[in-house]
Backbone:
């Protein structure tokens, strides 16, 4: 239950992301870069303060053993963020979100082959309901400067996110804090060059309200939430992680309605209920089946 509490908390935190990003008048690439860097520095300080001498040697051993794998995972994470934000430029946000949240389906299917996890009927039905709910919530109308390009970038982000989950799921023997730190290094290897090459205009002013919101994204969304997420997925089945991932977009819908004034139609409420209900039913009833 502790692991479920961690991943649900992380998903709810990420659900508030649109609220903060909408208040930051800077490029998506720069927001990604700064929040990644701030999250890394924050968790690095936490690690240095909390580390004891007896943990130094195990950490070094773990670092040597998993460094390449985790840095690669972090690079996929950075590419995921960049691709997602770029997709918003070319296609409607709803369509980009729909494409992006095909990642749990990818994880569920891959886990059957990689981890030999059994996909029971209830879990499949729960996933189907969640996907159907996502279609209802986001709609299916195509719009934007280049919808095909936008959908492709959204799907690319979904693949990258799936690879992060699967790589982390296969990594054991290293703590969540250390795992997050190493992966943020990998994310920076993607985010920094991309931002520098594509940057236009003035850089972030951290004395402004936008700077304050960016700091929150770094400390809370990139630092705290990632730590909770990576700690949890090591202890949960990959399919459960996939189902819980739908809490993020569903909660984002409610937070946008509360804090940004976005209206929720009855159909959208139905879709959100299918997302949350499908994820919860797929996990709760499949756990009950395993006890029988």
Residues:
């Amino acid at each position: 239950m502790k692991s479920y509490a961690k991943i649900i908390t992380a998903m709810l935190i990420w659900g508030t992301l649109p609220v903060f990003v909408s208040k930051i008048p800077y490029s998506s690439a720069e927001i990604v870069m700064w929040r990644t860097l701030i999250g890394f520095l924050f968790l690095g300080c936490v690690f240095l303060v909390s580390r004891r001498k007896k943990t130094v040697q195990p950490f070094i051993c773990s670092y040597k053993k998993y460094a390449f794998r985790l840095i690669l995972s972090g690079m996929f994470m950075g590419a995921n963020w960049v691709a997602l934000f770029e997709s918003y430029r070319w296609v409607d946000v709803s369509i980009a979100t729909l494409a992006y949240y095909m990642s749990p389906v990818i994880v569920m299917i891959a886990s059957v082959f990689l981890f030999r996890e059994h996909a029971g009927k209830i879990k499949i039905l729960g996933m189907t309901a969640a996907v159907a709910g996502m279609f209802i919530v986001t709609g299916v109308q195509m719009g934007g400067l280049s919808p095909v390009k936008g959908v492709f970038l959204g799907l690319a982000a979904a693949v990258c996110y799936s690879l992060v989950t699967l790589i982390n799921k296969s990594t054991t023997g290293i703590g969540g804090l250390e795992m997050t730190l190493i992966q943020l290094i990998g994310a920076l290897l993607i985010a920094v060059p991309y931002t520098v090459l594509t940057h236009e205009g003035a850089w972030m002013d951290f004395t402004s309200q936008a700077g304050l919101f960016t700091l929150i994204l770094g400390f809370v969304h990139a630092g705290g939430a990632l730590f909770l997420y990576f700690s949890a997925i090591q202890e949960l089945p990959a399919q459960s992680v996939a189902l819980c991932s739908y809490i993020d977009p569903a909660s984002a819908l409610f937070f946008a309605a509360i804090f940004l004034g976005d209206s929720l139609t009855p159909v959208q409420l139905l879709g959100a209920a299918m997302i949350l209900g499908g994820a919860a039913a797929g996990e709760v009833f499949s756990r009950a089946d395993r006890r029988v």
Notes: The chain has a mean pLDDT of 78. The radius of gyration is 19 Å. The first helix runs from residue 2 to 15. DSSP finds 13 helices and no strands in the chain.
